[in-house]
Amino acid sequence: MSEVKEKKAIIEKLRNKYRLTISNESTFEEALSFRLSRLNVFTVAGVFSIFLIAFITVLIAFTPLREYIPGYPDGKMRRNIEQNAILVDSLSLELEKRDRFFNGIRNVISGNDFDNVMQDKADSIVDPKYKGLQFTQSENDSIFRKEHEAEEKYNLTLSGENKARGISSIHFFTPMKGLVSNPYDGQKSHYGVDVVGPLNERISAVMDGTVIFAEWTLNTGYVIQIQHGKDLVSIYKHNQELLKKAGEFVRAGEAIAILGNSGELTSGPHLHFELWHNGKALNPESYIKF
After folding, report:
1. Is the entire prediction scored with pTM above 0.70?
2. All domains of the chain, ordered by start, with CATH?
Protein backbone atom coordinates (compact mmCIF):
# COMPACT_ATOMS: atom_id res chain seq x y z
CA MET A 1 0.00 0.00 0.00
CA SER A 2 2.85 2.35 0.75
CA GLU A 3 4.21 1.91 -2.81
CA VAL A 4 0.81 2.81 -4.29
CA LYS A 5 0.62 5.89 -2.08
CA GLU A 6 4.13 6.92 -3.18
CA LYS A 7 3.17 6.58 -6.88
CA LYS A 8 0.02 8.64 -6.32
CA ALA A 9 2.04 11.27 -4.54
CA ILE A 10 4.51 11.47 -7.46
CA ILE A 11 1.65 11.82 -9.97
CA GLU A 12 0.03 14.53 -7.84
CA LYS A 13 3.33 16.39 -7.69
CA LEU A 14 3.58 16.25 -11.50
CA ARG A 15 0.06 17.60 -11.82
CA ASN A 16 0.35 20.28 -9.17
CA LYS A 17 0.06 23.78 -10.65
CA TYR A 18 2.77 26.34 -10.15
CA ARG A 19 2.61 30.00 -11.02
CA LEU A 20 5.51 31.58 -12.91
CA THR A 21 5.31 35.35 -12.49
CA ILE A 22 7.35 38.01 -14.26
CA SER A 23 7.10 41.37 -12.46
CA ASN A 24 8.63 44.83 -12.70
CA GLU A 25 11.60 45.08 -10.32
CA SER A 26 11.04 48.70 -9.35
CA THR A 27 7.23 48.75 -8.95
CA PHE A 28 6.70 45.03 -8.29
CA GLU A 29 3.84 45.20 -10.80
CA GLU A 30 3.00 41.82 -12.30
CA ALA A 31 3.82 41.92 -16.02
CA LEU A 32 3.29 38.30 -17.02
CA SER A 33 2.32 35.12 -15.27
CA PHE A 34 1.98 31.44 -16.23
CA ARG A 35 0.25 28.57 -14.48
CA LEU A 36 2.24 25.45 -15.19
CA SER A 37 2.67 21.98 -13.87
CA ARG A 38 5.73 19.83 -14.00
CA LEU A 39 3.96 17.56 -16.48
CA ASN A 40 3.30 20.53 -18.78
CA VAL A 41 6.97 21.53 -18.58
CA PHE A 42 8.16 18.01 -19.44
CA THR A 43 5.69 17.78 -22.35
CA VAL A 44 6.66 21.15 -23.81
CA ALA A 45 10.37 20.40 -23.38
CA GLY A 46 9.99 17.00 -25.08
CA VAL A 47 8.07 18.38 -28.08
CA PHE A 48 10.54 21.20 -28.46
CA SER A 49 13.47 18.76 -28.36
CA ILE A 50 11.92 16.56 -31.04
CA PHE A 51 11.22 19.57 -33.24
CA LEU A 52 14.78 20.86 -32.74
CA ILE A 53 16.30 17.49 -33.67
CA ALA A 54 14.12 17.21 -36.78
CA PHE A 55 14.95 20.76 -37.83
CA ILE A 56 18.71 20.20 -37.45
CA THR A 57 18.49 16.90 -39.36
CA VAL A 58 16.67 18.51 -42.30
CA LEU A 59 19.05 21.47 -42.23
CA ILE A 60 22.10 19.23 -42.46
CA ALA A 61 20.62 16.81 -45.03
CA PHE A 62 19.39 19.39 -47.55
CA THR A 63 21.84 22.27 -47.20
CA PRO A 64 25.60 22.65 -47.79
CA LEU A 65 26.10 22.57 -44.02
CA ARG A 66 26.59 18.80 -44.24
CA GLU A 67 29.93 19.40 -45.93
CA TYR A 68 31.26 20.78 -42.64
CA ILE A 69 30.67 17.45 -40.90
CA PRO A 70 34.05 15.70 -40.36
CA GLY A 71 34.47 12.84 -42.82
CA TYR A 72 31.66 13.92 -45.16
CA PRO A 73 32.93 14.50 -48.76
CA ASP A 74 32.54 17.97 -50.18
CA GLY A 75 31.22 18.79 -53.66
CA LYS A 76 34.64 18.58 -55.31
CA MET A 77 35.38 15.20 -53.79
CA ARG A 78 32.00 13.81 -54.89
CA ARG A 79 32.62 15.01 -58.45
CA ASN A 80 36.01 13.29 -58.40
CA ILE A 81 34.37 10.09 -57.17
CA GLU A 82 31.80 10.21 -60.00
CA GLN A 83 34.50 10.91 -62.61
CA ASN A 84 36.62 8.05 -61.29
CA ALA A 85 33.64 5.72 -61.48
CA ILE A 86 33.05 6.74 -65.11
CA LEU A 87 36.74 6.27 -65.93
CA VAL A 88 36.80 2.82 -64.35
CA ASP A 89 33.72 1.83 -66.37
CA SER A 90 35.33 3.12 -69.58
CA LEU A 91 38.56 1.30 -68.73
CA SER A 92 36.63 -1.94 -68.27
CA LEU A 93 35.05 -1.52 -71.72
CA GLU A 94 38.44 -0.80 -73.31
CA LEU A 95 39.96 -3.86 -71.64
CA GLU A 96 37.08 -5.95 -72.97
CA LYS A 97 37.68 -4.59 -76.48
CA ARG A 98 41.39 -5.29 -76.16
CA ASP A 99 40.74 -8.87 -75.04
CA ARG A 100 38.43 -9.46 -78.02
CA PHE A 101 41.03 -7.95 -80.35
CA PHE A 102 43.85 -10.13 -79.02
CA ASN A 103 41.64 -13.21 -79.11
CA GLY A 104 40.95 -12.51 -82.77
CA ILE A 105 44.66 -12.03 -83.50
CA ARG A 106 45.46 -15.19 -81.53
CA ASN A 107 42.95 -17.17 -83.59
CA VAL A 108 44.40 -15.84 -86.83
CA ILE A 109 48.03 -16.49 -85.82
CA SER A 110 47.32 -19.96 -84.45
CA GLY A 111 45.43 -20.83 -87.63
CA ASN A 112 42.22 -21.87 -85.95
CA ASP A 113 39.76 -23.26 -88.47
CA PHE A 114 36.54 -21.38 -87.77
CA ASP A 115 34.64 -23.78 -90.01
CA ASN A 116 35.71 -26.65 -87.78
CA VAL A 117 34.71 -24.66 -84.70
CA MET A 118 31.27 -24.06 -86.16
CA GLN A 119 31.10 -27.71 -87.16
CA ASP A 120 31.95 -28.78 -83.61
CA LYS A 121 29.11 -26.58 -82.31
CA ALA A 122 26.77 -28.11 -84.88
CA ASP A 123 27.88 -31.62 -83.91
CA SER A 124 27.07 -30.86 -80.28
CA ILE A 125 23.38 -30.47 -81.12
CA VAL A 126 23.11 -33.46 -83.46
CA ASP A 127 20.86 -36.26 -82.31
CA PRO A 128 23.13 -38.88 -80.65
CA LYS A 129 21.62 -41.68 -82.71
CA TYR A 130 23.13 -40.15 -85.88
CA LYS A 131 26.64 -39.55 -84.51
CA GLY A 132 27.80 -43.10 -85.09
CA LEU A 133 26.87 -43.23 -88.78
CA GLN A 134 29.62 -44.40 -91.14
CA PHE A 135 29.57 -43.39 -94.81
CA THR A 136 31.12 -45.61 -97.50
CA GLN A 137 31.55 -45.08 -101.22
CA SER A 138 29.18 -47.01 -103.40
CA GLU A 139 30.20 -48.65 -106.66
CA ASN A 140 28.11 -46.18 -108.68
CA ASP A 141 29.78 -43.26 -106.92
CA SER A 142 33.25 -44.59 -107.73
CA ILE A 143 32.36 -45.03 -111.40
CA PHE A 144 30.93 -41.48 -111.61
CA ARG A 145 34.06 -40.06 -109.93
CA LYS A 146 36.38 -41.76 -112.43
CA GLU A 147 34.30 -40.57 -115.41
CA HIS A 148 34.32 -37.00 -114.11
CA GLU A 149 38.09 -37.03 -113.53
CA ALA A 150 38.64 -38.38 -117.04
CA GLU A 151 36.52 -35.61 -118.57
CA GLU A 152 38.35 -32.89 -116.63
CA LYS A 153 41.82 -34.30 -117.12
CA TYR A 154 42.79 -31.77 -119.78
CA ASN A 155 40.77 -28.84 -118.42
CA LEU A 156 43.24 -25.97 -117.93
CA THR A 157 41.00 -24.21 -115.43
CA LEU A 158 41.53 -26.86 -112.78
CA SER A 159 43.61 -26.66 -109.63
CA GLY A 160 46.91 -26.02 -111.41
CA GLU A 161 45.67 -22.70 -112.76
CA ASN A 162 44.04 -21.85 -109.45
CA LYS A 163 47.33 -22.26 -107.65
CA ALA A 164 49.05 -20.03 -110.19
CA ARG A 165 46.41 -17.36 -109.92
CA GLY A 166 46.46 -17.44 -106.10
CA ILE A 167 43.54 -15.42 -104.83
CA SER A 168 42.09 -14.86 -108.30
CA SER A 169 39.97 -17.96 -107.86
CA ILE A 170 38.40 -16.64 -104.64
CA HIS A 171 34.84 -15.38 -104.84
CA PHE A 172 34.48 -12.03 -103.06
CA PHE A 173 31.14 -10.73 -101.89
CA THR A 174 30.48 -7.14 -103.01
CA PRO A 175 30.76 -4.85 -99.96
CA MET A 176 28.34 -2.32 -101.47
CA LYS A 177 26.79 -1.65 -104.84
CA GLY A 178 27.55 1.86 -106.06
CA LEU A 179 29.58 4.13 -108.31
CA VAL A 180 33.38 4.13 -108.03
CA SER A 181 34.22 7.84 -107.73
CA ASN A 182 37.94 7.47 -107.05
CA PRO A 183 39.74 4.33 -108.29
CA TYR A 184 42.81 2.62 -106.87
CA ASP A 185 46.09 4.50 -107.48
CA GLY A 186 49.16 3.16 -105.72
CA GLN A 187 51.40 5.95 -107.03
CA LYS A 188 49.25 8.54 -105.24
CA SER A 189 49.08 6.40 -102.07
CA HIS A 190 45.38 5.80 -102.66
CA TYR A 191 45.36 2.11 -101.77
CA GLY A 192 41.67 1.49 -102.27
CA VAL A 193 38.55 2.55 -104.11
CA ASP A 194 35.93 5.11 -103.11
CA VAL A 195 32.40 3.84 -103.74
CA VAL A 196 29.59 6.40 -103.62
CA GLY A 197 26.19 5.29 -102.39
CA PRO A 198 23.10 6.51 -100.52
CA LEU A 199 23.45 7.40 -96.85
CA ASN A 200 22.64 4.59 -94.40
CA GLU A 201 23.37 1.91 -97.03
CA ARG A 202 24.53 -1.38 -95.48
CA ILE A 203 28.13 -2.50 -95.92
CA SER A 204 28.84 -6.23 -96.08
CA ALA A 205 31.89 -8.38 -95.41
CA VAL A 206 33.58 -9.60 -98.59
CA MET A 207 34.60 -12.96 -97.05
CA ASP A 208 34.41 -14.97 -93.86
CA GLY A 209 36.84 -13.66 -91.28
CA THR A 210 37.57 -12.18 -87.87
CA VAL A 211 37.23 -8.49 -87.03
CA ILE A 212 40.67 -7.29 -85.89
CA PHE A 213 39.91 -3.56 -85.65
CA ALA A 214 36.67 -1.64 -85.13
CA GLU A 215 37.26 1.87 -83.80
CA TRP A 216 37.00 5.60 -84.52
CA THR A 217 39.95 7.39 -86.16
CA LEU A 218 40.36 11.12 -86.72
CA ASN A 219 41.03 11.08 -90.47
CA THR A 220 38.89 8.15 -91.63
CA GLY A 221 36.11 8.11 -89.02
CA TYR A 222 34.65 4.73 -88.08
CA VAL A 223 36.90 2.01 -89.51
CA ILE A 224 36.53 -1.77 -89.46
CA GLN A 225 39.19 -4.26 -90.55
CA ILE A 226 38.64 -7.98 -91.13
CA GLN A 227 41.30 -10.70 -91.28
CA HIS A 228 40.38 -13.42 -93.81
CA GLY A 229 42.00 -16.64 -94.86
CA LYS A 230 44.88 -16.79 -97.37
CA ASP A 231 46.52 -13.76 -95.65
CA LEU A 232 43.84 -11.37 -96.88
CA VAL A 233 42.71 -8.26 -95.00
CA SER A 234 39.79 -6.05 -96.01
CA ILE A 235 39.37 -2.48 -94.70
CA TYR A 236 36.19 -0.36 -94.68
CA LYS A 237 36.49 3.37 -93.85
CA HIS A 238 34.26 6.48 -93.32
CA ASN A 239 31.35 4.49 -91.86
CA GLN A 240 28.52 6.11 -89.99
CA GLU A 241 28.13 3.22 -87.54
CA LEU A 242 29.91 -0.09 -86.88
CA LEU A 243 27.79 -3.20 -86.37
CA LYS A 244 30.59 -5.54 -85.27
CA LYS A 245 33.25 -5.45 -82.57
CA ALA A 246 36.88 -6.56 -82.55
CA GLY A 247 37.19 -10.31 -82.06
CA GLU A 248 33.84 -11.21 -83.65
CA PHE A 249 33.66 -13.74 -86.47
CA VAL A 250 31.65 -12.64 -89.52
CA ARG A 251 30.38 -14.44 -92.59
CA ALA A 252 30.62 -13.29 -96.20
CA GLY A 253 27.74 -10.95 -97.02
CA GLU A 254 26.97 -10.25 -93.36
CA ALA A 255 26.27 -6.59 -92.52
CA ILE A 256 29.22 -5.08 -90.63
CA ALA A 257 28.67 -1.29 -90.90
CA ILE A 258 26.44 1.52 -92.17
CA LEU A 259 27.62 3.84 -94.95
CA GLY A 260 28.44 7.32 -93.71
CA ASN A 261 30.58 10.41 -94.00
CA SER A 262 32.74 10.23 -90.86
CA GLY A 263 36.30 11.46 -90.49
CA GLU A 264 38.12 14.56 -91.69
CA LEU A 265 39.32 13.07 -95.02
CA THR A 266 35.89 12.82 -96.63
CA SER A 267 33.68 15.02 -98.77
CA GLY A 268 30.44 13.07 -98.83
CA PRO A 269 28.81 9.71 -98.06
CA HIS A 270 31.03 7.01 -99.53
CA LEU A 271 32.91 3.82 -98.68
CA HIS A 272 36.69 3.73 -98.93
CA PHE A 273 37.44 0.03 -99.43
CA GLU A 274 40.92 -1.53 -99.35
CA LEU A 275 42.06 -5.10 -99.98
CA TRP A 276 45.48 -6.29 -98.79
CA HIS A 277 47.29 -9.57 -99.41
CA ASN A 278 50.50 -10.52 -97.58
CA GLY A 279 51.00 -6.88 -96.62
CA LYS A 280 50.56 -5.56 -100.19
CA ALA A 281 47.66 -3.44 -101.38
CA LEU A 282 45.54 -4.87 -104.21
CA ASN A 283 43.25 -3.12 -106.65
CA PRO A 284 39.79 -4.17 -105.45
CA GLU A 285 38.27 -3.65 -108.91
CA SER A 286 40.44 -6.52 -110.20
CA TYR A 287 38.54 -8.94 -107.95
CA ILE A 288 35.19 -7.33 -107.10
CA LYS A 289 32.50 -5.81 -109.27
CA PHE A 290 30.97 -2.78 -107.55
Report:
1. no
2. 2-61 (no CATH), 170-286 (2.70.70.10)
